[in-house]
Predict the 3D structure of the following.
Amino acid sequence: MKILHYFVVGFLLVMAVSCSKRPDIAYIDKDKKAIVASDGKAFKKVLVQGAGKDVTFEGFSNDNRNAFIYFNRINPGFLVSEGFGLNKNYVLSLVPGKKYTVYIYLNPKDASAYPIRFKTDYNNKIVTEDEEEN
């Protein structure tokens, strides 16, 4: 009877984990070449790791234009750090043939974040995780 109990509890746990889906906090828009907030609300903190860099974007405004972080151009409304300095005019340039992970923090003081993975091909086009699976 105890074995059956453990089996049922284990089965229910596996079902709960497999049915739960990561919330769609943000996505990569290949046409806009940007990280886009799904709900249209301003990003508070976003960390982009890849190509040997860790770049942190911290929003200092709740303006809805801060619901986008563009690649290859300046993102007003964010203080950006790569290393120790802060920069308002930082341009996040993607490197061809590299993998990236974007971590979206709902609260800047949170330790946990929602990851989004993508890569660039050798023509510097963005390839999302969904496209890799197909």
Summary: Residues 25-133 form one domain.
